[in-house]
Write a structure and sequence with these properties.
The protein has 170 residues and is an alpha+beta fold. The protein has 4 helices and 7 strands, in the order H-E-H-E-E-E-E-E-E-H-H.
Length: 170
């Protein structure tokens, strides 16, 4: 093998390695994406079972039902459409009916109930996730002030963090 052929082989191997690494990273990112939906979106466009999504809206009044152990069922609404949700785990302290919530999980095959594995609740009286507030404003449902997530972007320690089921801030 000549010197030129060795150089080309090394360069070709390096390019192949980089291409494989980029493809693996792109595949990993595509598997970790969870798109945000409101109940109205799900009514218009059904989501295939086992597709991981985020579902946001308001906890429907009178919908919270405690099951066995730490299983809770409730409904997420945008005041036009409602999606039933089940969650097994400890809910955030600030979780209650009529308040903003974002759940993350998936629909199981043949079951219209959204199975959540993460529940994010509002932080204080003013906070609602920006996506949820914007969508509710578009529909003319939400009468709160400016969404804190949008109003305080870049402002440190303004309380715009959501809490998870474990009580830790994100």
């Amino acid at each position: 093998m000549t010197r030129k052929q060795k150089r080309l082989a090394i360069i070709g191997g390096g390019v192949s390695f980089l291409l494989a690494a980029v493809l693996l990273v792109m595949f990993a990112f595509s598997q970790a994406v969870a798109y945000f939906y409101m109940p109205e979106d799900l009514a218009k466009t059904p989501i295939p079972p086992e597709t991981r999504i985020r579902l946001g809206g308001l906890v429907a009044e009178g919908s919270v039902k405690r099951g066995e152990g730490s299983t809770v069922s409730f409904s997420v609404t945008d005041n036009h459409n409602t999606v039933p949700v089940t969650y097994t785990g400890i809910l955030p302290d600030l979780f209650r009916e009529g308040q903003g919530v974002v759940t993350e999980g998936r629909f199981e095959p043949g079951n219209p109930v959204f199975v959540a594995d993460t529940v994010l609740a509002k932080h204080d009286e003013k906070y609602m996730p920006k996506e949820v507030a914007d969508r509710l404003k578009q529909q003319g449902v939400w009468q709160g002030g400016e969404a804190e997530g949008a109003a305080n972007q870049g402002a440190p320690n303004q309380g715009a963090n959501a809490t998870t089921g474990s009580g830790a801030t994100q």
